[in-house]
Specification:
By secondary structure, the chain is α/β, with parallel strands linked by helices. The chain has 7 domains: 144 residues, Rossmann fold (3-Layer(aba) Sandwich), CATH 3.40.50.10930; 190 residues, no CATH class; 45 residues; 223 residues, 3-Layer(aba) Sandwich (Rossmann fold); 133 residues, Orthogonal Bundle (PCRA, domain 4); 71 residues; 162 residues, no CATH class. 45% of the residues lie in helices and 10% in strands. It has 44 helices and 28 strands. α6 packs across α7, α28 runs antiparallel to α29 and α40 packs antiparallel against α44. InterPro entries: P-loop_NTPase, RecC, RecC_C, Restrct_endonuc-II-like. Keywords: ATP-binding, DNA damage, DNA repair, DNA-binding, Exonuclease, Helicase, Hydrolase, Nuclease, Nucleotide-binding. Belongs to the RecC family. This is RecBCD enzyme subunit RecC.
Amino acid sequence: MAIHVIQSQRIDVLLQEMLRAGHQPSANPFEALKTQHFIVPSPAVQAWLTVKLSEHQGISANCLFHQRIRAFQWFAYQAVLNNKEKVRKANIPRMIIKWRTYQVLKPYIETAHNPLALDHPLYSIVQRIYDSASRLSNSTEQQLKKQGMLYWVSEQVSRLFSNYMEYRGHCFKQHGTGQACDCSSNWLKDWGKNQPLDLDQQFFSAQTAFPGLDSKEQLAQRREVSDFAKDQAEKLEQWQRWLWHGEFHADFALMQSIDQDFWEIMDHPETRQSALTHLPKQVTLFTVLDLPPSQLAFLRRLGQYIDVLILHFNPSQEYWADTVDANWKKQYDVKLKQRFKDKHPQASDPEIEAFFEKYTLEYGQLKESRHPLLTRFGKQARDHFSLLVNLAAGENGEEWEDQFPLDYQSNLLGKVQYDILNLAEPEADSFALNERDDSIRLHVCHSSLRQLEVLKDQLTYWLSQASADQPRSPNDILVLSPDLKNLEPLIRSVFAPPPRDLFLDDQAEAVRKDSVYLPVKIAGVTPLDVQNAWQAVLGPIQLPQGRFTLEDFADWLNLSAVQTRYGMNAEQTARMIELLSEAKFKRGLDEAHLRRTLAPNDTDCRYSFKFALDRLMLGVAVPEHALWQDTLSFAFVRRDDFELINILIEIYQDFAERRHWMVEHEMGQLRNVEEWLHLLLRDLERYQKQGVTVLKPIREVIRKQITMLTLSYYQDEDALSEEQAHLLKDMQLPLPYVLQEIQGALDSQMDQAVPSGQITFSQIGQIRPVPYRLVVMLNLDSGQFPSRQSHLPFDLMDILKPHLGDRSRLEDDQGAFLDALLLAQENLWLFYNGFDLNDGEIREPSSVVQELIRHLALIVEGSSGNPNLPALAKIDGDVDVPANLQSLYSVHELQPFELQGFDAERSSRKIRYQDHWYYVAQQLQQANGARKPWAAQALAPQAAEEILLDSAQWIKQVAFPAELYLKTLGISNLKYAEGLATDEPLLLDGLEQYAVRHFMQDQSLQQAPNAAAQPELLQDQLPVGKFKDAAWAVSQLQHEQLWERVSEVMHPDPPELTAVTQRQLKIDDQTLMQITVPETPVQQWVSMTASSARGRRRAQIWLEYLLWLASLPADAPLLNYQRVEVCNDVTICCAGISPEDARMHLARWMQAWRYGQQQPLVLPAALMLATDKNSALIVQEGKKGEELDVKWQENEQGQQVLQQFDKLAAKWTDPGDYAAFDVRQDEANQAHADWAFILRDQNSLQLLTQCCEQFAYALYQPIYSHQTAEKAHAD
């Protein structure tokens, strides 16, 4: 039994060695059925190994994978030790460390001021928590801020102590029996005894970057820095030691006792054999990403009893454990020469060089760099090699084997990999770069989106170059990014499945031919459906903490998980939102929810969800606009809505039950963590019972947290004090912190990234070390990579002396870049943003990429010989690149539809396929001359057939001919739709005032005109607060004034409006029209409206007048028929037309209507009958003191035209820069959405002139002559 180490630079070689070692001959046939144990550094390696084992063996079975050495270590404890429950409960999850830290420190932040003395170990950290809330004046806000800060501190402490237990809690020396451990790295042993660390020994000896070479000034400056750092480190050490000793030492001691119990059994001859039957005969460690010395020591000791096969991915076959960073070496050499000059001022350059060569020969081997890329980026790999190389001596029977194949490709990528393998120092001009060498490519783009668009084209081309001998598939490609989470939406957009042609929707050919579908998998990111389902569960908990608007509720209701949970479909959901909107739900759950944000004396709580729901419920029983017990019924509830209202009731109850969950801690109501988790689990199960299956990952997270929490306090009484158990069992946390932990567990799936059978997108560093034929790295921008934002606060490991095997995020990213460089089997593509989108300035790539470029520029023929100053040349976009590396660069355009992007002569390095952007570029390229208007030609007249028209619809069309033309074409001009109303009205705008007056008018027609109206019937329209009474009073006054004006017209007391009915009128042989006329023969038709008499309304009144007269029988008496309408601002009167004249005028309008069906009739009534602020028509003119009139004049063609046409033209072309009304909604303006759509690319003013010449006199001259407007008198 021993440890067998096999190292190689190729993962596939390590795989072959693993397979060979696992197929050793055995006399026992049942050996083949035993479980094989593998220790892997990440889930990515586990998934890759599983696939490869299946490929080589035909099946992958009886394989047990352990994530990192620590997992196998605890598996061994569980297998060997008899007290299984003790082992199961001993481990301390990081989440439990966080929660326990929060509970321990929480009593110290309850008071208004820091209760601790200055000499208390916790004073510094508690004072920092108080300082975070010092700028807040409200005591409640201060306490919430302190709690949030404390939870953040607890999060950092959990990370710190987890690292300390791995890297600073073990002894690595072979001490004699009874000899105390004096290892400087065994901090937790000292803290367990409440003994402070010897900080002077560990760091504070005026550390220098270059021992013996720094000047006195530099040394003095470093001492000042050291004094400050020492003070900070002492404070950190004090409170961390106090917290560890008082809260976590006993748990760690229990973990160490388990380790001791394990080795007592393994070292004892009588118990060893029994223990070995529970352990595998061999365990395979397949590569490492981190190697804590304590875990390696465990494997080394275990190797005395079982076979341990270590398959180590080593970048170089040479011994490089003592190599140093190339940059550090250069600075050291400069310092060395400067020191010699200071001691020998008269020394010549040859003497300095002679001294430097002599020093290098005698001492420089200890500080050699050799290959700069390896020593710069491979610091962690060097530490791992340094730890493993100790096994090469074979003191305990260890075996060491090198498997480094030398067959590398003869391209630039192969050259770099081969030089790193041999630790070869770079030689200038040592490689002749072929112009067709595409093994390493650098793509310079303008944004992350462009990088993905370029990548899609490049991947399409790369896959298309496959052959029978060298097939290529999507699973050969790995795409890495330093910030995958922010890149995810762009990936889903660019690599989305191609759109489908509508006319081929049900056929195999439905996929559009101008798109290529590349299957991609974003590894390590929570699927969108899981996130959306989780948001559905959290909706009733989180939404009541905000304004809870109709828009927020609609977004939640449209989540598919919500619809499944409550048994709805999309149509029912839309109807629910429509019902709530019409029932006037705007914001707030109910009265209690609104009162949280209203002033104390504000008691108006209408427009809430409960207000609308009450109306809908009453509408089921009373389907009319009526008041019952202070509740206004909703009149438009349909039978199909009953089920939906019942669902809304259930939803309201769910929201009401959970409305305070997020703020219970602010209200003094506290629940323990376990209770919160069970409540959330109950909600999840309700969704799952209704068929929402995607919540399984979240359910597993919550169950895991419940298990960890239970194990943390459910231990033997002798291992845990009763007070401590009570503290853990009744651990009380606000719900937001519990949800934060669940979300953190979901986000941590980034660490669970695994290869897929598709193009795999992953965070840099997550899928390693796994080989791919093509490796792509995106967003290698300066400042983004390597990441420097993951610094861990309060970390003593970062301040004090480092030890072999320590891990840092910066070195992780650099090591991941080195792995990508070494494990790319055929191609390596590097993308970065070379331009700033804001100012267009050229930007440099990441420092890591720059170092690689400098190295390549040195070894490729044509170099300047200086690795720091390569000869530069300008390429596309004025980007400066090394002259001998120009063929590696591709500078891409800013936009995907730029014309030069689709040039047929372009190199395949910048290939573009004719996707949907090609058609955009094609249109831009062929944009010669003016675009032809689409509505310039007249349509063919419709075949004669009998039609039945509705007079109201017909009047709308002829008054606004744009609507007529679009309807004839069957075109719906989509307009911007306003969002759902989310604010209750504080004032009534014009439309809302009209709605109130119109309601009062309808009420007065159903009752006596002078009957008192009920303001309660308008509680769904009147504004909130004190403006409610004011709006009601103003509307009532306006309504009374309308009736007074009706009385002036009709004279009866009380006044009555003319009753109307529906009849059919035969316009011609093919046309019938449903019209509205007085119910009984009358001479005067009087009506009243709450709206103003604008141009379109005046045209409607006139056309109703014509239709009424045209419907009179031929023998009707020739009377002076009048059509009178009392409007809000004026009284309109139409008179002086005989029935025969009315039929003639009506025929002209029908002629214009038919013309408007064939081509645009640019003659809107809103323009022709537009008025000024005095309600006078703008086309009227007259001298002062004279009556205003519309004047016409005859043109050269004998047509009557308006003399005041310039006023119409001015209003038609008004840009509306200072208008209070949006001209895009003004029917009298060419900028109206419909007019702008129809008249695009045409001269709208010329068309207006033509239509006025052809139709204005015939249609509108009778209106100018026979319609009057009497302005209402102001009181």
